[in-house]
Specification:
Elements lengths: L1 H20 L7 E5 L4 E10 L2 E6 L5 E5 L3 E6 L9 H17 L4 H13 L5 H15 L5 H17 L6 H27 L7 H17 L2 H33 L2 H17 L4 H21 L4 E2 L5 E2 L1 H10 L4 E2 L11 E5 L12 E9 L9 E6 L6 E6 L7 E8 L18 E10 L7 E4 L4 E4 L3
Antiparallel strand pairs: 1-2, 1-5, 2-3, 3-4, 6-7, 8-16, 9-10, 10-13, 11-12, 11-14, 14-15, 14-16
Helix pairs in contact: 2-3, 4-5, 5-6, 6-7, 6-8, 7-8, 7-9, 8-9, 8-10, 9-10
Length: 454
Amino acid sequence: MRSGESEMKKLLCMMVFVGLVGNLFAGDKLIVTKEGMCFWVTSVTQEGDVLKYNSKQTGEEKTIAISKLHGVVPVVVRGKRYTPGEIQKYITRIKKLQEKHKRLYRQLQTILQGWEALQKPNLELEGDIEKLKVFFASSDKRTSIYKKTVLDLGMVRYKDMQGKYGPKLDNVLADMKADYVKVNKERLEKQAATAATMSFEAFAVHEQLTKDVLKEAQESDKTAVSSMLLTTRQTVFDAQGRVALKVFLGKKSIDAFLQSARIMYGLKENVAATEKQKADIDKRIGQLFVQTQKYNASYHINEGGFPIGADTRKLQDAAMYRCSTSESTYADLREEVFIIPEKSTTGLRYGRTFSFPLRMVIQRAQPKDRKFAFIVTYPGADTVTRVIGSPQFKNGFASVKFDENFAGLAGTQILPNEEGRYYFYFHMAYEVPQKKGDSTWQAVSKLCFWSIAP
């Protein structure tokens, strides 16, 4: 009987301890023994009647018999969600241990205060929720504002470790989403009403807003918004196609061709979605090439869509011996420019300042204030950006200067290629201003490599 009673007590002790440990397997914990001793651990696992743990002080894995323990006290883990029931369970456990072990009162009290704090109203979080509600309600509810507010409310939820404000946050987010969809659906409707005069750039903005709204909308709104995009796309495609032809026929010059090409390529890249639309725009571009050469006999439109005049052709022929252009491209390359040297590239030396004349030949008209740069790499050195500003194009090209003073490369030793020759590499890019942070540069020419003496 005594043996049976002993086994029963042991079993009961294990059951009680399992209740004390619960599902705690992460974060710091304080183990309290029946002798009134305590020590910090970082992990706890039970194997039969033994508790395995890792000492916080040494990291060493140790074991202790469960029969020697009175409990394990977890510390509040910041960012972890606790239910009200869990919080109360840990508070009750700590208070019982304080009653049994007066000497550990202070150590346990510090941990207790962390749990009790979770039961108190958090005026800071309540204030943050209210501020974000007011902020969004008074905003224009554009997508960037909506995303920022959702993100900020997510941070509030992160700080709400007991999940006390979960239902309130859910309601606020649901109201925000409905408001965002309503306001921006109306915004899309106003934009769609101007489809007959909408540019391809404006359509790209319209399409992006449509995609943003579709992510948040209910099924009924999704159907209406998707249908509106479909109609707007076709209207813009047809209307701007007519505009492109009209632009060219107005003057029939190379500059008119470039303006027309800009619209047509814009439609192909930003508006055309169906195979029929893509085939249609390719046909129109081909017809534009034919008409341009008909009215500009001294020009040839090459396979890349670049208008090549007689003087440019001479430079291009001579450049076969002076400049090589690799077939290497970039994942985001939009080949709108190719580069031709206007004089021999021989005699360039690393470290000796040079100002080299180049011709930028364009495939389509460029925005007036678009800023261009050469992105230059010397093997063994960092890539540098040489800004050239906003060239003025006429008859499909502009003459620019590639100025190199090797600034920022002092002390750098350039490396030869496998054949022992020295080259530097560059391509043309235009600036893409960012709302926040530094601008990015969009590659618009293939990569060129020129010989340079070390």
